[in-house]
Each structure stands twice: as structure tokens, then as C-alpha cells.
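Give me C-alpha cells for this 267-residue protein.
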Amino acid sequence: MRRVATQRRTVKCAPRPKVRNHEADHDLAIWKEALFGAELLLLHASPVYYGLGIPHGSGAGVVVIPGFLGSDVYVAHLNSWLKRIGYRAHLSNIGINAECPNLLIRYRIARAIKKARRDSGGKVHLIGHSLGGMIARAVAAQMPDDVASVTTLGAPIRGTVLHRSIVEATNVVRRHILYEHGNHVDPNCYTPSCTCDFVNSLKRDLPNTIAQTAIYTRDDGIVNWRYCRTGESDCDFEVSGTHVGLVFNPSVYTILAERLAWSESLN
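Here you go.
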């Protein structure tokens, strides 16, 4: 893993992403994802998890957004670690991430960010895993005055090229959303063809005031790792491990600690 860049930047990290339609990638080895348990064990054995040898925060607010079909439960390790190293970590309170992202932002994520800002007294850092990273980028574009940084973990921010089983699962969720909400959502909800604020926000550049970090793994068995990068070398960080395990990966935690501290130094 290369050294984390901490210099002050004056340019955007992410050019406008070219959002592609949901597309199945038959080369993704989803079976590798069963190895995420080893990453959890390594995390508990790592000094980083106990706050040793890494920079600490000074009370800034952080909101962690779980990925597709996930909840705040599986990011509990990350939340507790953030609190140990000096941040005010907040749950997303979205329940299961199997809902229209536009509605999640409007009724859950935006409220969580506002609460985190009130509690900390300053701008908020967003960390999103997979689909949660896409949501983090979208809400940052919509609320730039409230967000200090966005960090994505295995988030296909430049196009949704997924394992075929995940594509099938998104289709099931999409049908449920249309059945549940009817005319209250776009007919193309949960596809890049949707015209809602969520999709449109993903197509916009983030302002220079928001620091960006994208962490990815080439062994990703869920999404094509090539679409999880911003395209700027100072913002993109590769680690070894699985897609699911990115929320337990000690190398990810090291990068997070250093990038959050760097982002704080800019404000």
C-alpha cells in the first residue's frame, strides 16, 4: 500500500463520473467474499484498531453509511473505532439499505448529517461502503456546506458494473420500491436512467471544499474495482482484501485515520 498523501490540494479529486447502466460482470469472483472473516480477525489483532500509531481526531462528526442490503449493524466496528480515535460517529439510521436512495437521503441521511453537525459544531465527514459510498457522494453534492469530506469504500462511483447475482438482487429491490411507493418515485428508480436528485447529484462535480478519498480492492468480488476510483492518484488508495471486508480491513482503517486527520487540517 502506498503512503497516504496529506498535502493540501487545490484541485478537485474526482472528475464527473460517467454513470453506466447496471451491467453484469461475469469475471467477478464472488466466492472470494467468504474470506472477509479473516479480515475481521486481523482487525482485532491490529494495533490500529486500538488507536495505536495513527493520528486521532478532535471531535469532528462522522456519519457512516452502509452498503446495499446492509444496515448500521455491520459497520458497528467502524463506528466504535471512530469514537475511540476521537470522532463523534453517528449511525445513518436508514434501516436496511434496500430503499430508493433519493428517499433515504431526504428522510434519513440528511437528518443524520444535520444532527452530527449540531453535535460537533462543525462540518461532517461521510464514509460510505459500496452503495453507501454512492449515497455519500450524492448527499455531499446536495449539502456541500455541511460536509467536510467524503470517503468511499468499494463504491462504484463511475459506473454500476456488478456481479450478475447483485444485478438480480437490485432488480428485486427495484420492483419492491415501485410497488411500495408507486407514483412517489421515478419509474426508472434504482437505475442510472432515473432522473431523481440522487442520480443527478452523482453526475455533478463536488466542490473543492470537500476532500475526497476512494478506497478499493482489485480482489473485489461484488463490483468492478475500476469503477471505484476517482481517477486522481492522490485520492485513490488500493488495499488487499474483499469487498465486504473493506469495513473490517486494518489497511483501510489506517488510511481513514490519516485522511480524516488531513481533511480536518484543511478546515
